[in-house]
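In keeping with the milestone schedule agreed at the kick-off meeting, the structural modelling team has produced records for the first pair of proteins. Each record is given below as a sequence line and a structure-token line. The laboratory manager (R.T.) confirmed that both were archived under the project's standard naming scheme.
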Amino acid sequence: MLVVEYREQDHDKLVEIWESSVRATHWLTTGYNDHEEECAG
């Protein structure tokens, strides 16, 4: 059982980390796919 003591500051930091990783993943997946589609024409 994982007990997390909720603190707004910690939450904001987690969200910031999560969003940056999502952006990186989004760029790697969609950005790469878009590039491939453009090349395929």
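The second protein of the pair:
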Amino acid sequence: MPDLATDRLLLRRFTDADAPFLLDLHARPEVMRWIGTGAVQTDPAQAAARAARYAALDHPVRGIWAIEDRDGGALLGTLLLKELPASAAPLAGDDPAPRDAPEEGETEIGWH
């Protein structure tokens, strides 16, 4: 997973040092209500394991990046790009027959 930079932000691979940020982020009900079961995370070991899982992702496009402020270096959030299987329903204007297989290259974006 390569780092990506804009004038203001750096999207980078997570490191073990990011575990306290992930613990704080995933301990917030207002964040977790949108993720999985909605259960908050309060165990530092879970946050360390999450940071290690995120760091191990290695794909040129899909993955989970740390969003960092380039000026001060503060972590601001996370960015997720994941494969999304195509729906069996046709897109508007498509042939009305359902697709037999997912389209390759469809990606979902998420952030918090």
